[in-house]
Amino acid sequence: MSSEVVRTLTEEPKNNRTNAKKDTEKKMKTLYISVDADKLLRLLYAEGEGKQNEIFEKAIKLYWALREVLPEEEFRRLVKLAEKKEIEKIKRRLEFK
């Protein structure tokens, strides 16, 4: 992907109006997720983790934060472990000393 495309996708839309509620504005998206991810989402929802959109927002913020603080290779390994549902290995990797 060219740097121009990445910049276009990540930059804020140009809008001359000022809006104090900018951070609280919502945008509707249609997401296609796997059946497995849907089951996990429903489980989290049933356990009272919040509304489904709140769970997605928290997950995205956590994903972003981990990507920012972990070295790239460590982050990739952690994501692979999550995809494989290797919870014990994830616990060991996230132990802080």
Summary of the model, kept short:
With 97 residues, this protein is an all-alpha fold.
- Rounded to an integer, what's the Rg over CA atoms? 17 Å
Helix content: 55-70%
Number of strands: 0
Give the termini separation. 38 Å
Low-pLDDT runs: none
Secondary structure tally, helices: 5
What is the succession of H and E elements? HHHHH
Structural class category: mainly alpha
The largest pleated sheet is described as:
none
Q: What spatial form do the alpha-carbon principal axes imply?
A: globular
Proportion of beta-strand residues = under 5%
Could you report the average pLDDT, rounded to the nearest whole number? 81
- Identify the quaternary structure here: single chain
What's the topology here?
Elements: H1 3-10, H2 35-46, H3 52-69, H4 72-83, H5 87-93
What key phrases describe this protein's structure?
single chain, 97 residues, mainly alpha
Question: What does this protein structure show overall?
Answer:
59% of the residues lie in helices and 0% in strands. The protein has 97 residues and is mainly alpha-helical. The chain is globular, with a radius of gyration of 17 Å.
